[in-house]
Amino acid sequence: MFATCQELVKALHEHQLVQPTDREALAACSTAFPPRGPGETAHFLVKQGALTQFQADKVLEGAAHELRVSGYVLLDVLGTGSMGTVYKARKAQDNNTYAIKIVPRRNVANLREVASKVQAFKQVRHPRVSALIHIGAQGERVFLVWPYLEGGEKLDLLVRREGKLRPRLGTQIALQVASGLQAYHEHGLFHGLLKPSDVVIGTDRRVRLLDFGVGFLLACEHGKSLLDTMTNTRALARGVDCASPESLVDPLARTPEGDQYSLGCILYFCLTGQFPFPVENPVKKMLAHQIKQPEPVEDLSPEVPRKLADIVRRLMAKSPEDRYPDTSEVVKELQTLTAQDRWVPAKPAKYSVNKRPGSAPGTILRPNLAEREALKREPIENKEAKKPTGWDVPWWLVGGVPAGMGLGVLAWILSRS
Which one of 26, 29, 90, 225 has the minimum C-beta count within 10 Å? Predict the structure, then answer.
């Protein structure tokens, strides 16, 4: 695309893609002898740290203008989600780093109105939350800006890798998420689309919440959404595993109470290693959120304390009125639980006590493979026999009498006719 090194350097200056501290590297490129070609120049600038490889590739493609989004310079691609591509960027004015999500633009008229509402998120700050701080448009694209969080592993990847988490660890994660939500719920703000991929666990075990504010955009009035219909649909579909029943009926019905339901689904995911309704069909999954109860946490993870299982059930109540009055109550209950020294399982399994050598006195051991197989082969006669009740009537008698009466009536009608 560029014939000489000087043309490439000129494009970098024109689009303000380099910082003042990197101008010496640019000058070295322009005056190098023998002259470097554009590709060699770009490689040299990457090696010097003046450009990222992503930027160098874009510039060599002749797309240097795509690296500027309003006052931000795109540095690298962080990932692609249901709504659009997320980039790491810096702002020329303050040299800080940000995460920018670029999505297709739908509506021009209401951008100023939505942008003014986004200012409410800037008034609240919490160390656990990366909240939306700016929304703007450039050409046919809308861009959303959050503070960039360095490092960490997303919760969904952690659980996929490790399996279900220990109850205490799952509770600690839920507590940090709840405390972040509480700060915004107190101001009537909500996440609206909370799911495990929005929870990042740092190396210090501190939790951060991502994409806070996207649900707000999805809850704009009908006809006033900045996002096109396809982007809206993809975002809603991706969050269906943790979506509240009321938001599935009406996408505008996103509230702090809906965040509670999503938190319950996330905690369920941490404790069991699966979502509450692990079915493939999205329609069946949406219907299950409406009318079905998930398999109890304690059935899938017997080591979970009864109190923790009750918290999950209340968070996932079908009706918002049956959940907690506010998120501060959730925080208090989780704090009380984490402060306990000893956690009693809700449904102790058939564990063996001191049957294997090397265990300390009183140690409760999980049954090994041989013991589990033995439990499966336990003779039926050793189990408590079912006690008869006054309603133990043969099935053929219960079903046969009404059926016989019905056939008799039908025969009488036919004979009369």
Answer: 90
